[in-house]
Amino acid sequence: MSASQTRLTDFLPYLLSITSNAVSDRIADEYRAHFGLKIPEWRVMAVLGDQGAATQRALVEATRMDKVAVNRACRVLEDRGLLARRPNTADGRSHHLALTAPGQDVYRAIMPIALEMEARMFSALSAGERTLFKDLLERIRAQAEATGNQP
Amino acid sequence: MSASQTRLTDFLPYLLSITSNAVSDRIADEYRAHFGLKIPEWRVMAVLGDQGAATQRALVEATRMDKVAVNRACRVLEDRGLLARRPNTADGRSHHLALTAPGQDVYRAIMPIALEMEARMFSALSAGERTLFKDLLERIRAQAEATGNQP
DNA sequence: AGAAACTGGTTCCTCTTGCAACCAAATTGC
DNA sequence: GCAATTTGGTTGCAAGAGGAACCAGTTTCT
């Protein structure tokens, strides 16, 4: 309803983008410094630590990352011995991926740090505001994705 | 205060990131389809169209983009005749960059589309929610950036 | 005025990211 | 049961982003 808001800094997509970047950069720094993990790798570990074994296909869905990104992250984690592949008897194309014992150790060490970092990052918001913020994000994303799939 | 929220999809930074990506992708498609502009180029045009002439240095501040990104965007716009460089008499290192007449035409054509697109993208939110959302983003970004600069 | 430090802009190089093509296993349809 | 299609995963390539080094012009200090 505002008559003319033509300043770049008033555009929501712009604000959303720079905010997301600021937060991501900050978090990426922490994960790298503490554990030498990149964000895609951390996401895979988070899902496996929480849900147990999964195929790459399942990880793609759970993390909303590209399948290439998932594949690369898994390879790195496997090379570092944090994750192991076991053959999938039900489907010869895929494997069951799961955290190894050292992987679980790292997971348990990371999780409190991740939560603490999130708390610090969003400490400017009250608990109620955080909940509300999540809800708004969810609705925006749903709208954006719905708008997108109309070729 | 929630005892254990260890699901990836409950992490705010994750939600923020995938939402921002969804919105950015959608918008990038539109700008490319309508005007052949990428987001950095659009941002530069938005600032110049709104504020008038500026140096690259000023554009870096206004857009919060890397100076390399600004430089590249300006070069593209200049090659397309949408932007012109005039010598800066006050400082021989930099130039004053401003939209050309065709550049202004494009700017005026883009702006309503940008606003309409933003409205569509955030139509899931009420006016009040949009205002609130902006405010929350602003506070989060300030916090993230403040946390970051402590080496 | 001249040397040293600084700043705006540009280039170069590296790392990351995503798409498209591809391979192999599995499913479907005759 | 075998050809055709689909699907999970992998590889290769090409574009994007950001950092570091670099150049030219400016400021500061003596």
Q: In CATH, what is the homologous superfamily of the domain at 31-118 in chain A?
A: Winged helix-like DNA-binding domain superfamily/Winged helix DNA-binding domain
Shape assignment of chain A: globular
Largest chain-chain contact? A-B, 60 and 60 residues
CATH class of the domain at 31-118 in chain A: Mainly Alpha
Adjacency order of strands in the biggest sheet of chain A: 1-2
Tell me roughly what share of residues is in helical segments of chain A. Answer: 55-70%
Estimate what percentage of residues of chain A fall within beta strands. Answer: 5-15%
Give the structural class of chain A. mainly alpha
**N-to-C span of chain A:** 30 Å
Number of helices, counting only DSSP H or I runs of 4 residues or more of chain A: 6
What's the oligomerization state? homodimer
| Largest sheet geometry of chain A | 2 strands, antiparallel
Which CATH architecture of the domain at 31-118 in chain A? Orthogonal Bundle
Q: Report the strand count of chain A.
A: 2
Protein architecture, described:
The structure is a homodimer of 151-residue chains. Helices cover 67% and strands 7% of the residues of chain A. The first copy, chain A, contains six helices and two strands; from the N terminus they run H-H-H-H-E-E-H-H. Chain A has helices at residues 12-35, 39-51, 56-63, 67-79, 101-121, 127-148, and strands at residues 83-87, 95-99. Chain A has a two-stranded antiparallel sheet with strand order 1-2. In chain A, helix 2 (39-51) packs across helix 4 (67-79) and helix 3 (56-63) packs across helix 4. Chain A is globular. The mean pLDDT of chain A is 92. The structure holds a DNA duplex (30 and 30 nucleotides).
